[in-house]
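Pilot study result, target chain (531 residues):
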Amino acid sequence: MKFTFFRRHLRKAAVIETLLGTVGIPVNLAVAALMARVVQSALSGDTSAVLADGVWLAALLIGYRSVETLLRIRQERRRSKALHNCKLEFYDRFLSRPLPWLCACGSGEIKERLNDDFTNATDKLLSLYPSVIVGALTGVSYLLFVSRFSLAVSAVMVLLSILQGVPKLVLKSRFERNYSETRDAEARLTDYLLEARHGFITLKLYDLKELYLKKLKKLHDGYVKIGNRSIYTGTSETVLTGFASVVVKYGMYAAVGIMVLKRIVSLGAGVEAVALAGSFFAATKTIFDSIPRFAEVGRAEARLGECLSDEDVGHSEIEGASVSLSDVSLQRGDKEILHRASVVFPTGGLCLIKGVNGAGKSTLLKLTVGLLRADEGDVRVGGAVPETISADSFPHGLFYLPQEDAALAVCPREFYGMVCGADVSAVMQLARAFGLGDAQLDGTNINTLSGGERKKVFLALALAAEPTILLMDEPTNSLDAASKTLLLSELKKRRGLSLIVTHDSIFDDVCDRVYFAERGTVIEHEKDKLA
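Predicted structure:
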């Protein structure tokens, strides 16, 4: 059921691809018959018949290739459009997966799934099935055509064609294993290279190039090791296939020649058999070539299936501003971040979460918004389990401002329109209050703004959305003094719950409650004991 929409988008293109392939069957049969007539006329010395059949042969081939070319052009357009629509729906379903799953995906893993795996899965409908069907119809048609003169020739063609399948059957399991290992290795390399891009300045400033390259070489050596196995498999296939092709090709010529000499078949039937042999063996080879391809597609579909899981992403609506954790535990690797932590935040006011670095403050917010899943315990936001919260609850029911602001390739006004709809006057007014001018708001993409300017873009949206529950992680990072003052002023006006992770003391005097993350728990502290 996961890939039903693949069939819906690609079925028509797949059917037409199959029909285009079958058109060549009667054409090749006609060509074989004409070639037999040309040879027989030539042996009998009938020049006019040779010329006439030759003209018909040339006209048939030219006409067929011309029409096929035009149809192929239209089919390629149809195929590209179907693939595009299929990919759009796939992206939509992929991005509808639960937030914890998306958050845990590495960039390299996503790249492999959205590119190679998707291509292999769609090729099953657009290429594999049509080629196998056309190959089967071609083989059966040619055998029936040849069998009308000699069953012996048909039997020879079948036996020789089976030889082509031996390399594929022998190496099927290796192709399947190599596919998954190669995809995983490429994903790890991609992730590591992306990390270097993001941390390039650090690598340069602290002369960490050698350490980086050392680990890169280790990853690359692992990739090469897997690649060598793939090369050995591919080389083995090439050698075995080449040997089989030589046996098939010259074995067919020899068998037909002997049958003609022994008068088992006529010369005309022999010529027809030889004329069709190349296409027949190509058709059966296509079928055998599909054996490892189906194995690869199976692995690709299994990986894609995780992106299209039927797991319920939820449609829960937030009711009220309650946020609570009950006996929540979370471990990452060997580190236990939270251990049976329980806390109930008030349904309104400004609450601070403080603590040393690594105490789990940011993790607490990610659990609350549904980016992470607790190993144990229960998290509730507005009465709902975080990962089941409906998308309609964002941004007015729940708004999360992470520590790192997204570097989007759109200008702030366009981004505001995407989130807020047509009326962006309130958020634009607030953005200007933070000191952003028309040049930054209308003419500059967010990914080219400075860190402080990006922070202001998202703060303006967070405050203008007036969410019932507002979650902020270090919102004063990169802000100037005037912007901090404005932020504080806007937070004082808010209704609902504002939950802020911060090391900044500017909130201490105006906050309603203070919580500390320490030793895997979350504990409320009295305001007057803040240092």
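One observation from the pilot: The two ends are 59 Å apart (CA to CA). A full batch analysis is planned for the follow-on phase.
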